[in-house]
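Our consortium's second objective concerns turning raw sequence data into structural hypotheses that experimental partners can test. To show how far this objective has progressed, the report includes one record in full. It was chosen at random from the queue rather than selected for favorable results. The single chain below, 447 residues long, was entered without modification.
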Amino acid sequence: MKYRKSVFLLAAMLCVSFSAADSWSAMQIRKRAPKSTSEKPAAKPAAKPAVKPAQKKPIKKITAKPAAKPTAKPAAKKTVAPKKAPPKAPPKPVSKAVTTKSFVGTVKFIRGKNLLIEFEEQAEVKQRFSIYDVRLRKQGSVQVLKALDGNIFLCKILKGSADVGDRLAGESEAEAYYRIMRRRRVSGYREFLQVFPGSSLVAKVEGLLFRQTLRKGFQTFPGASITGKLELQEKPGQEIGFGGVRILLDRFIIAQATADGSFSIEGIPPLYKGVTVKLAVIDDRFKTAKKIEVTLPAKSTEAITMDIPIKLTPTYVSGRVVDEYGNPVRGAMIWTSPYTTEKLTDENGEYKISRKKKLDSSGVPLEGDEPLMGRDYEVYAYKSGFSAEMRRVSAKSFSENVVDTVGLNRQDALGSEGLPKPEVSLADNLELMQFVVSTGAGPKINR
């Protein structure tokens, strides 16, 4: 009975525990159900912010990289720009000291950009002045348009501004030069020469004025002309034509020579001021023998005759002589065939030939020499105690023609026997080398 009662009690306890567990789990499900339904919408927004910060991080990195590049580029430009600007820009104007004695006029009336100014002295139309206030600060610049009654002139503002009572001073030389260099106009150059005739920049401004006049007015009829002929200072052994040689006047190529060297430059416009300019030739075969200048008078249409002395651009045959070990051979004799030009190598074993000896029709050398011209040459190299070698080169006129390096082998007739004793004659122990060259080659004058 006791056993049965204990079993019964155990079964009852189990039933109570299971029912309690079921009721607790049901309560938990009931309590969690509203939470789970409310948590689902909240979970979605919670997931989005979690993703957004992850996406913002790379965005910050990407935006940071381009931000560094723009900062680097302006820094490079700032450092480079000042270096390039000074050579191109004309010299900055250096304002002269302005005092009350420098002022020559006073602003009496202003309307827009037109001014009425009273000058202490007579002013000229198109003349320029600088405007200063009572504190001597520069306000800008004006130009005279026309004269009115007495010393009253109508002017217009070119730069800056003006007020009644402002004073005017003449434009300085540096300011005027800076202005005309920026504008590069014929009228500006003429104005500078009129206002500053004693300036140290007159020669430069005259050259600029001539170039601008030639650019805008060439060819003008009637106009000045330059005629002449090319004169070759030294004639080579063959004929050379002058056809197509270009004539350079100052910086302008404006003529070509004929076959006999004659040239003519016509239609040079009359100049505001006389100028002296350079005359030269542009050709690979020739160059001017000396500096040639021609003076063109002002307002002239006369014909000027001017010959141009020229000389040939040298033709070179050059090379190097070394021994079997690659060391330079000094004092080796070099000559060419069919001509008898001779040259000795220097301390570096190098040589350069640009002249040839004059020969008569039979090949006999005459006095003097003449320029070397292009053709096929045989170049020989020889020095006592060495072998003799020959190289061929097809030389072009008016240029340098490099010959292949010549290698000379040292001749030792004694072999391994060493040097002879003092009582032995060297002439009996040395083998004289016999070297054969083609007809017309070799130093004939020394034979």
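The partners drew two points from this record. The CA atoms of residues 90 and 178 lie 6 Å apart. Confidence is low (pLDDT under 50) at residues 14-87, 414-419, 429-440. Both points have been shared with the crystallography group to help prioritize constructs.
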